[in-house]
């Protein structure tokens, strides 16, 4: 199942977790669940996952950051600054029409 999606059997209340923690951990050990969303006042508050899954996600994210920097020539911080500047321009109404073709050519040159 996707890391960003979760099903009802992966949701648990904070109270249930405190009362049935052994059963929840057993489900992780048996790999019945890959992650658990801990609800507080009916809203997602925390995410629990197996540590090996967390390490794999962090490794994948680091690799994707490297690929993005190779493709764009910009670091995460530079991208964040560019986004912040663009958001400020949008607030001021200083926008230009979006050029889909130019973006496509920049990402996938012929």
Would you write up a description of this structure?
- This protein is an alpha+beta fold and 110 residues long.
- It has helices at 14-19, 21-29, 51-72, 76-92, 100-107, and strands spanning 11-13, 35-40, 43-49.
- Strands 1-2-3 form a 3-stranded mixed sheet.
- A hairpin with a 2-residue loop joins strand 2 (35-40) and strand 3.
- The protein starts with 10 loop residues before the first strand and ends with a helix.
- The model has no long low-confidence stretch (mean pLDDT 84).
Order of strands, widest sheet: 1-2-3
> Could you state the order of secondary-structure elements as H and E?
EHHEEHHH
Strand content: 5-15%
Q: Which class of secondary structure composition applies to the elements? A: alpha+beta
What is the number of E strands?
Answer: 3
Profile the largest sheet.
3 strands, mixed
- Give the fraction of residues assigned to helices: 55-70%
Continuous helix count: 5
Task: Summarize, please.
By secondary structure, the chain is of the alpha+beta class.
Write the layout of secondary structure elements.
Layout: E1 11-13, H1 14-19, H2 21-29, E2 35-40, E3 43-49, H3 51-72, H4 76-92, H5 100-107
Parallel strand pairs: 1-2
Antiparallel strand pairs: 2-3
Spell out the key features of this protein.
110 residues; alpha+beta; 2 domains; 3-stranded mixed sheet; elongated
């Amino acid at each position: 199942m996707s890391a960003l999606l979760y099903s009802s059997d992966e949701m648990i209340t904070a109270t249930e977790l405190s009362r049935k923690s052994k059963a929840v951990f057993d489900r992780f050990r048996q790999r019945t669940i890959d992650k658990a969303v801990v609800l507080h006042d009916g809203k997602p508050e925390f995410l629990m996952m197996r540590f090996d899954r967390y390490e794999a996600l962090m490794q994948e994210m680091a690799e994707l950051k490297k690929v993005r920097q190779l493709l764009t020539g910009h670091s995460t911080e530079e991208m964040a600054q560019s986004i912040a500047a663009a958001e400020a321009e949008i607030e001021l109404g200083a926008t230009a029409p979006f050029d889909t073709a130019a973006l496509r050519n920049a990402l996938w040159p012929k």
